[in-house]
What does this fold into?
Amino acid sequence: LLAEHLRHLQEELTGSPHLDATVAATGQPQQVGDYRLLERLGAGGMGVVFKAIHTRLERPVAVKFPRFAALLDAGAAARFVREAKLLGQLQHPHIVRALDAGDSEHGPYLVTDFIEGETVEQLVRRDGPLEFRRALQLALETAGGLAHAHAQQIVHRDVKPSNLLLDRAGVLR
It folds into this structure.
């Protein structure tokens, strides 16, 4: 998985979608600290997120790495580390909890709760527009999480449907 991650990062830097095929996964799960990476969940402007297992607690988590280009930009790398520290200060039912952070040979990483479910974007793509009451409920849950963060002097800067997770019970994070 990390080989795939590094290949994607190299593609981002070089702009080349056709890299040497010898950069392939070993077939063995990759380990970062106490976390065994299982699958790549997605990528955004700042990072790449993997589903992982905490090997000692045997519980699923999400592990986020900054994109390679961000590692080359000292400002972007500093924002990633600052994000980890700020998220670690927040405790709210509509905010994903930060559990750990660290450095690895692949760069810094942030570990959060793994939310089994889907994003609001996935929900709308699958089912179409939300009913008014459901949309209002999700907006209020989003506002509650953001208000808590703002009270701690934290601004999210990237609120969008693909960053709003719904757990299996339908609670927004």
